[in-house]
What does this fold into?
Amino acid sequence: MEMTKLGPDKRTVPVFIQGLMRTADMTVEELTNLLNNDLELGISYLDTSDIYADGYCEELLGKSFAQNPGLREKFILQTKGGIRRGTKGFTYYDFSKEYIISACEASMKRLKADHLDYYLLHRPDALVEPQEVAAALDELFQSGKVLHFGVSNCNTSQIELLKKYVKCPLEINQMEFTLGHSLMLDPGMDVNRVETQSYDHDQGVLNYCRLQNITIQAFSPFRAAKNRNTGTLIDRYGVKVETSPFLGNAEYPEINQKLSEYAGYYNVSPAAIVIAWILRHPANMQVLLGSTKVERLKDSLAGQEISLSREEWYDLYMAAGGIVP
It folds into this structure.
């Protein structure tokens, strides 16, 4: 049975999303097996992007759909666009009308899809002209090529600027969020204080999305930002960081010890406890799982069956470096 929940606007939405960023090394047959396993596990939502392996992840998925008639219709299909590979050796962002439409159509061609269920603007473009975005999304919607729209890694004012002109609802904001990366949450825990945790990096986007009926898709659920200088679990503010998985990593002993304790108590894996922590937040987030291993997916899905108490949730938050004044 498909695992669903009520989203912020009281619609029924899938809890889990299969991320396909790591599929570039798979064969068509291996990817098809993953998709069939997803369906057996109740995962019926797919996420990819035109920047993943420069479009090859989309192309591979399209080949799987083409070789397996009827498979596409079993999934909610979501991709993203707006990041470009430059000729000068770096990537940049382009939310011009012309590029949004051409990128979306190119994704559809690679995916061998006559429409996309969701199309997300992939990270903010500092040079955005919202009227052009509005014109592009309206054209894609009116033509039937895209049914729903969203954004990725956008703060409140960036979304509000788009909404001033965009007619179609922006329903998704894809943001990194987990025990090891809780910046959306931290400032609300330290209101009117001088501690660095009180720094607001996203203009209160977590509560904003709840108010605006925008579903947050939490990606990288097992990744943390590590302070290169001090070696602490989470470097939230102003210090150059590198990212690494915290789950099962000896460099993060406190949170892993706590996860092991709760995993033993609930008779699940530590991964399930991480997922339970994310889903316990009342924003009704979706969780984007990047693993292509069936057993790891099963471990994560078990987190949906656990309802952490407030005390347990805060206990995990503080073990991961969060501060409760």
